[in-house]
Amino acid sequence: MTGTLVLAGTPIGDVRDAPPRLAEELAGADVVAAEDTRRLRRLTQALGVTPRGRVVSYFEGNESARTPELVEELVGGARVLLVTDAGMPSVSDPGYRLVAAAVERDVRVTAVPGPSAVLTALALSGLPVDRFCFEGFLPRKAGERLTRLREVAGERRTLVYFESPHRVDDTLAAMAEVFGGDRRAAVCRELTKTYEEVRRGGLGELAAWAAEGVRGEITVVVEGAPEQGPEELGAEELVRRVRVREEAGERRKEAIAAVAAEVGVPKREVFDAVVAAKNSERQGT
């Protein structure tokens, strides 16, 4: 019989948030794969647990090489516990490759549910929580970051991002540029830790605040775009949406059809707007 891969959630700050089953799994697993073995050691000491199994590192730098080794352990019947530094494995953390490889070999995959920075920030933000999407980390390069933000400028669901404290000021400024400075947002810092802080306001206001310097682990929650009727979208906005899709790799014909369906206007109207913009650009040159 094959073994079992267990994805275990770990505290995002306060160690007292550790689920009771985490200690049991840490003590009983045949192999514990940890993103940082030093942080794992501090966690097990805090929980009063001594892993009986082998402890190995499993992080971004060795994920590709170590995955086949762990899969062979699983196929051989081992119970492998995967833990990352904080939160659930594979959510902007190592784990996806191992889960996919285990599923391909018909290995059972289960989880020990635990704290999540995504859901905690969403709940504390004060923004709508009925529909949301998680966008992870934005690209580091300014141009790529703007392109990614433009792709979701019309997204009506609440958006959740992770960000580095060293880049959060630039990110908030880019969000204010693309989404508008009045779009509501919340910056959640050091969740469940001693200096936890949730800063709420418009993106422009938050960008100015972050420019003074922000420390700690950051989760940003942004309100979705307001609903707009077809009559509220001008030709310039229609052209912008087509260009965003073209930059993402869609052919113009498909991009025009998609934008027309998205905003509820005839394809001809979008096509005419694109052609007019093209002609205007030629005349300008």
UniProtKB/TrEMBL annotation:
Main location: cytoplasm
GO MF term set: methyltransferase activity
Keywords, comma-separated and alphabetical: Cytoplasm, Methyltransferase, rRNA processing, S-adenosyl-L-methionine, Transferase
Top-rank EC class of the record's enzyme: transferase
Compartments where found: Cytoplasm
Any GO BP: methylation
Source domain of life: Bacteria
Catalytic activity: cytidine(1402) in 16S rRNA + S-adenosyl-L-methionine = 2'-O-methylcytidine(1402) in 16S rRNA + S-adenosyl-L-homocysteine + H(+)
Known EC number: 2.1.1.198
Residue ranges of domain Tetrapyrrole methylase in the record: 4-207
InterPro entries, alphabetized: 4pyrrol_Mease (IPR000878), 4pyrrol_Methylase_sf (IPR035996), 4pyrrole_Mease_sub1 (IPR014777), 4pyrrole_Mease_sub2 (IPR014776), rRNA_ssu_MeTfrase_I (IPR008189)
Family the entry assigns: Belongs to the methyltransferase superfamily. RsmI family.
Protein purpose: Catalyzes the 2'-O-methylation of the ribose of cytidine 1402 (C1402) in 16S rRNA.
Protein name according to UniProt: Ribosomal RNA small subunit methyltransferase I
Source species of the chain: Streptomyces ambofaciens
